[in-house]
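User: quick one, fold this
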Amino acid sequence: MTTILVTGGTGTLGRLVAERLRADGHEVRVLSRHSQPYAVDLREGGGALDAAVAGVDTIVHCASAQKGDEQAAANLIRAARGAGVRHLVYISIVGVDRVPFRYYKSKLAVERLVEESGLGWTVLRATQFHDLLVMVLQGLSKLPVLFLPAGVRDQPVEVAEVADRLVELAAGAPAGRVEDMGGPEVRTFESLARAYLKASGRRRAVVNVPLWGAAYRGFRNDGHLTPRRAVGTGTFEEYLVGRFGGGQVRTGSGRSQA
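Assistant:
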């Protein structure tokens, strides 16, 4: 079996990837800013990063942040080339080339760095994880009224299924840009929000608000969806049951009812 480095290996996706690779018998190194013995800030690089990639056959790059992704990828690629890494696998997002959203632009730039790295490479684009969608809805539902971007749909996918696919790709030969991976259903954002409210026991008025800008138009035009690659099987409702159970509704007495 091979030695595989998982960046962002303590995150939602990276943790599952690392667990599955170990279960398959690979030697796995987990790299994150605080995970010993490979505690590395990829945006800074340096000797600790060189040590982390020394002797590694394959890197699965799951680490991501709102800022500094391009510098982090450049540092990782530089270290990987120096160590003779055979295969770099990168997880990206469906629509990074179609929706001019700032974070998406950064992910697309990292894709190009990977493609031009001189390393054997594989890039998988996936739709949004169920976990991320719930995190967004939790934030939006802090107000008495849940405001949603009008006319937007989503296609959330189960993160464990994406982890399984990354493990499969990491164990194989470099494959370039592979087919996108989307969740099983394309849903209106409102239907997903109402499912979340029901499962979490929150009562909120839901209001769809038209927005503006090129990124919003990209989302309204379904640039972030891949309905022809709806290969995921886990639905949003199934995720919600696992996360919240049957859902609880608060009553005036402060008690909850199913």
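User: anything notable?
Assistant: The mean pLDDT is 93.
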